[in-house]
Automatic annotation (TrEMBL):
Keywords: Transferase. InterPro entries: Glyas_Bleomycin-R_OHBP_Dase, Glyoxalase-like_dom. It holds the Pfam family Glyoxalase_3. Residues 3-175 form the Glyoxalase-like domain. GO terms for molecular function: transferase activity. This is Glycosyltransferase. The keyword Cytoplasm does not apply.
Length: 212
């Protein structure tokens, strides 16, 4: 179990403009992602060190975005003005989460221009919608070289998260201590009785720390 990425829902001016603001703040160039046909969404990627990345995502005008929980989550966060939507943990085995949550993981995919395809299974988006402090879980499949963090070399590191919520709640959700997937990513837990979710993310960049 390890932290994989953080997701940011597009603001009112759309995916390109939102991505440009974040990439400029970090002093890097973003990488074009692609369409998630099963979810009715599309994304842009900012690769980071340590096998992490930032996903900036928006909904398409497509029925899938209303039906798929991931599309619903993106649409709701963008409708509220956009911003940090959630964080994701990569695991080797989704079966314990499927058993605990009482439902099956769903497949995800997006294709590259050269025909290669990024594929994965994910679960937990409904939990994130209900309680945005908790991560969702995914299992990557296929070629590891296609992992979004490998799209371009990066010197930007995700150093810390500020999350409204409690470590105890997320530990309960994951089934093991929340520190396990975070490794050297620090978390400041605030407002445990307030509205939950990621409040900010801090990165180490070439010009010093940047908080978004």
């Amino acid at each position: 179990m390890r932290m994989d990425h953080v997701s940011y829902a597009s603001e009112s001016d759309g995916l390109a403009a939102t991505t440009e603001r974040i990439a400029t703040a970090l002093g890097v160039d973003a990488v074009r992602g692609g369409v998630h046909p099963r979810f009715g969404t599309r994304n842009m990627i900012i690769p980071l060190t340590d096998h992490h990345y930032v996903e900036i995502v928006e909904c398409l005008n497509h029925p899938a975005s209303d039906k798929a929980p991931f599309g619903q989550a993106v649409k709701a966060r963008s409708a509220a003005g956009g911003g940090w939507m959630g964080w994701c943990v990569a695991v080797e085995d989704l079966a314990p989460f499927e058993e605990r949550l009482g439902r099956s993981a769903v497949p995800g995919n997006r294709k590259f221009p050269d025909g290669q395809e990024l594929v994965w299974q994910q679960i937990g988006i409904k939990g994130l919608i209900a309680d945005p402090q908790v991560p969702y879980m995914l299992k990557w499949e296929g070629d590891p070289a296609l992992h979004p963090s490998q799209a371009r070399p990066s010197s930007v590191r995700l150093s810390s998260l500020t999350i409204a919520g409690s470590a105890e709640r997320v530990t309960e959700w994951l089934g093991e201590p929340v520190e396990a997937p975070l490794n050297d990513v620090a978390v400041e837990w605030i407002a445990p009785r307030g509205t939950p979710g990621i409040m900010s993310v801090t990165f180490e960049t070439a010009t010093g720390p940047v908080t978004i």
